[in-house]
Design goal:
The chain folds into 3 domains: 36-44 and 192-260 and 288-319, Galactose-binding domain-like (Jelly Rolls, Sandwich), CATH 2.60.120.260; 54-188, Sandwich (Jelly Rolls); 327-459, Rhamnose-binding lectin domain (RBL) (Jelly Rolls, Sandwich). It is built from 6 helices and 25 strands. The protein has helices at 62-66, 83-92, 190-193, 342-350, 402-410, 422-425; strands at residues 5-10, 27-29, 32-34, 39-43, 54-57, 72-81, 97-111, 114-129, 135-144, 161-169, 176-177, 182-187, 207-209, 219-225, 234-237, 243-248, 251-257, 292-295, 305-311, 321-335, 363-367, 373-383, 415-419, 436-444, 454-459. The strands form 5 sheets. Strands 5, 6, 7, 8, 9, 10, 11 and 12 form an 8-stranded antiparallel β-sheet that branches. It starts with a strand and ends with a strand.
């Protein structure tokens, strides 16, 4: 495709934001604009919660039960523990353990409504220590999907949830096999069914969240915020949260998970050619896989926007912030050996004409997003330039007019195009050598000096 995209966070000074925010609804601290200082919260039940649940014998496959209605599936059963069982464990200094042959993607284990363990993986074996009380104990399992496989052999047979034997070990009389036991199933969360995220929701009991509240699992949060002015895209920074989902004005903006990627595996030089696998061209090793989540401006109002968060693992909503993000740095690189612009070929075909020799010349195109123009050309070289975006360098062959010609064609415009031809840059700087044009430019808008934190995206 001859296209790459890199992302860089750029922090600007913050002298004032009076021209961006119509009201002082965002909490400003250390140069960061937090969504709100006032949050409401409500808890999600951690067990079977609806009359729509059903009870059957055995463990059923996750996807066949949920039928894409929800990421979540509850399994619940009751375990009787006698006084002699407790005495046996105490005398032998052992604990009962839940063992599951295979789990995909996430398993959360609850005993009597308390979360005691989490497992994440692709059909991995689970061994989880349990803590029981004398008498009947509720053992509740929650399986979750984190996306569906969409390629590979027999993907439709891979499934999700629990697979194989499930049992509890450590009893004096032997293992307790739960594979054929009676299990009660519940699809989804109560907050999903009652639409806690809806602006018209009246079905939940929200209470005020105090700033010193401890992080809580499976908790709903909501707050209202104003949207920054202008036309730059808006994003929520959720790095203070763990894992969950988010809605703005009733619209689902997606699932978030601030999971840190492995520290090793990234390559300084990346080449997408050849066979593809998931470990190819990794970036941002040792950092969260994603923290910024885009919110379309068409979903936003000038003020009083509702943000609802479902947090599964525990986070701090008071530190959720809003950021603008725009393509302030754009790059392009086109060689004489590249194909001409597809639009030229399509246009000639539509009007029934032969493609002219002039239309067969490759072109380099630069394009700023709406409301931005090319303010400066920071690098331009026609010849044999090296490097990549933000790290271009001149080669042994370089046309002296490169910078002036590109600046003349592009500066002050939202978009521009330049033919990859010796005639554009004057004399051939190196006859007989295949030449390339590399360009790096900056896009700015009338609000570029607003002092707001922005995500600068360099596209190459």
């Amino acid at each position: 495709v001859r296209a790459q995209t890199s992302v860089k966070l750029v922090e600007f000074d913050l002298p004032t934001v009076s021209n961006i925010f119509p009201a002082q609804q965002l909490r400003h601290h250390n140069g960061i604009y937090y969504i709100s200082k006032s949050w409401m919260t409500t808890k999600e039940p951690l067990n079977i919660w609806s009359k729509n649940s059903f009870t059957v014998e055995g463990i059923w496959e996750h996807l066949n039960v949920t039928k894409d209605q929800s990421d979540y599936l509850w399994y619940s059963t009751r375990i009787y523990v006698s006084d002699s069982d407790i005495l046996f464990w105490e005398e032998n200094d052992v604990h009962p353990k839940l063992t599951v042959d295979g789990v995909r993607d996430i398993l959360r284990v609850f005993v009597n409504g308390q979360l005691i363990g989490n497992v994440v993986g692709h059909w991995i074996k689970v061994v989880q220590t349990l803590q029981f009380l004398p008498g009947y104990n509720d053992l509740t399992l929650l399986t979750q999907t984190v996306g569906l496989q969409n390629y590979g052999a027999f993907l439709e047979k891979d499934g999700a949830g629990i697979r194989g034997t499930i049992k509890i070990t450590g009893f004096e009389n032997g293992d307790l096999d739960l594979s054929k036991s009676s299990w009660t199933y519940q699809v989804g969360l109560q907050g999903e069914l009652l639409r806690f995220y809806s602006e018209e929701n009246e079905n939940s009991e929200w209470v005020e969240l105090t700033p010193d509240a401890l992080p809580s699992t499976f908790t709903w949060y909501k707050a209202y915020f104003d949207v920054p002015g202008g036309i730059d895209p808006v994003a929520l920074d959720l790095k203070s949260m763990g894992k969950g989902q988010a809605w703005v004005n009733g619209h689902h903006i997606g699932r978030y998970w601030t999971r840190v990627s492995p520290k090793s595996g990234c390559e300084q030089v990346c080449d997408y050619r050849g066979a593809y696998d998931s470990d190819k061209c990794l970036i941002n090793c040792g950092k969260p896989t994603q923290t910024l989540y885009h919110v379309p401006r068409s979903w936003l109002r000038a003020s009083n926007n509702l943000l609802v968060i479902l947090e599964e693992t525990g986070g701090n909503p008071f530190e959720i912030s809003v950021k603008l993000h725009s393509s302030s740095l754009i790059c392009a690189q086109v060689s004489e050996s590249n194909y001409p612009h597809l639009q030229k070929l399509v246009h000639a075909d539509l009007i029934g004409e032969e493609v002219s020799e002039n239309n067969m010349i490759p072109e380099l195109h630069l394009h700023c997003q709406e409301g931005h123009t090319i303010s400066s050309i920071t690098f331009a070289s026609f010849g044999t330039p090296g490097g990549s975006c933000q790290n271009f360098s001149r080669g042994n062959c370089h046309a002296p007019s490169s910078m002036s010609m590109v600046s003349k064609a592009c500066q002050g415009k939202r978009s521009c195009s330049i033919k990859i031809s010796n005639t554009v840059f004057g004399d051939d700087p190196c006859p007989g050598v295949m030449k390339t044009l590399s360009v790096e430019a900056r896009c700015t808008s009338p609000l570029s000096d607003d002092g707001f934190f922005q995500e600068a995206v360099s596209s190459f």
